[in-house]
């Protein structure tokens, strides 16, 4: 996201993007585009959203529990399956799955056998007697059982239709992966897997303190400087000092050339994009404050009366800085991209160039989303509204 791409994105660019991040978090809220599509749009620019589902069906990517529910590349899925098989999880999905297996062993086995004999199923293939509201505990029993088998690894997601999961036996999904699934990965020692996830986290984060590393893949226990010392000795990690940070920072050796450019002041950010609330750039609030002086929380899970900025708030990345946020909603039937409210950070002094590039970023996102008409609500500061509207009229 340093600079906008100069070429049109390809399917391979989408796969490379997921591989660079190591995972792509899945979230189903779609007041704008669903999160995984927005995360990719911030990095690839305009691309067909169908590419993500096509990659899943073709076996180029797979779904698993990682940071949360995530897409990962086919080459990485074995690492996650091996880790979960060897580690004692405390994640809520595993807890609910264990309760489901304990409470309904016969029904769950019958469901698994149905998939084995009859092929892939979706939750909507099963009727429910009552109407639930939301959450795991509100799902109909078959949905809970499908998710329990998915969490424990017996089922995987073979494809999605209208973003709805279609489950199949893990062995059949693994058989279609491209590149082919390497079963030898499943025998990797836990220590080697943890080291791999630590290195992958540092590579994905770019520059990081030790205390931010574990959250990327939800590693436990937390990673500390002592654990990283051997990786410095082998040269797999590089230690750097960052102005204003009391703790040392770490960079993966693959980024040595970029690190040198940063030291020389030759990394020039020119990109302006809107970020998903579930973008890996903003997962860790402590890291976000220290790196960007930006305080952010996802308010879609907060009661309306307690929200400070709005329901689905997109942070604004402008030339390497997080300068503000906007509360957005896509009205697909009307072709309208509504910006209910737009807030610049109090310390940001908007220039004409900043506002023009922000207006273009909003316009690009709206056009990609097939909601090209932009409706702008209140702004802070108020004066920027007229500049943004003028850009869209022009």
From TrEMBL:
InterPro entries: AlkZ-like. It holds the Pfam family AlkZ-like. It comes from the Bacteria. This is YcaQ family DNA glycosylase. It comes from Dyella caseinilytica. The lineage of its organism: Bacteria, Pseudomonadati, Pseudomonadota, Gammaproteobacteria, Lysobacterales.
């Amino acid at each position: 996201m340093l600079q906008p791409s100069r070429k049109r994105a390809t399917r391979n660019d989408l796969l490379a993007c997921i591989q660079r991040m190591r995972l792509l978090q899945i979230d189903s809220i779609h007041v704008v585009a669903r999160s995984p599509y927005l995360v990719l749009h911030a990095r690839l620019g305009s691309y067909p959203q169908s590419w993500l589902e096509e990659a899943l069906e073709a076996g180029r990517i797979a779904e698993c529990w990682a940071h949360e529910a995530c897409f990962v590349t086919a080459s990485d899925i074995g690492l996650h399956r091996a880790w979960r098989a060897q580690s004692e999880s405390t994640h809520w999905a595993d807890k609910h799955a264990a309760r489901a297996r304990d409470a309904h062993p016969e029904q769950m086995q019958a469901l698994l056998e149905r998939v084995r004999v009859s092929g892939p199923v979706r939750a909507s293939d099963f009727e429910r007697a009552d109407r639930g509201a939301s959450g795991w505990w509100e799902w109909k029993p078959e949905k809970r059982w499908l998710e329990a088998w998915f969490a424990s690894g017996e089922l995987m997601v073979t494809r999605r239709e209208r973003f709805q999961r279609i489950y199949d036996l893990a062995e059949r999904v693994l058989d279609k992966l491209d590149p082919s699934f390497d079963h030898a990965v499943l025998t990797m020692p836990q220590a080697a897997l943890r080291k791999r996830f630590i290195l992958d986290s540092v590579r994905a984060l770019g520059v990081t303190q030790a205390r931010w590393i574990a959250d990327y893949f939800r590693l436990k226990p937390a990673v500390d400087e002592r654990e990283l010392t051997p990786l410095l000795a082998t040269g797999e990690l590089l230690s750097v000092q960052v102005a204003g940070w009391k703790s040392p920072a770490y960079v993966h050796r693959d980024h040595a050339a970029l690190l040198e450019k940063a030291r020389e002041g030759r990394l020039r950010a020119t990109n302006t994009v809107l970020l998903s609330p579930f973008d890996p750039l903003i997962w860790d609030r402590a890291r976000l404050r220290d790196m960007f002086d930006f305080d952010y929380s996802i308010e879609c899970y907060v009661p309306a009366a307690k929200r400070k900025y709005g329901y689905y708030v997109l942070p604004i990345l402008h030339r390497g800085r997080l300068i503000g946020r906007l509360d957005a909603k896509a009205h697909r039937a009307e072709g309208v991209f509504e910006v209910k409210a737009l807030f610049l950070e109090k310390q940001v002094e908007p220039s004409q160039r900043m506002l023009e590039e922000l207006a273009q970023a909003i316009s690009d996102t709206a056009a990609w989303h097939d909601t090209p008409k932009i409706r702008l609500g209140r702004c802070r500061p108020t004066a920027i509204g007229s500049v943004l509207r003028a850009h869209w009229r022009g």
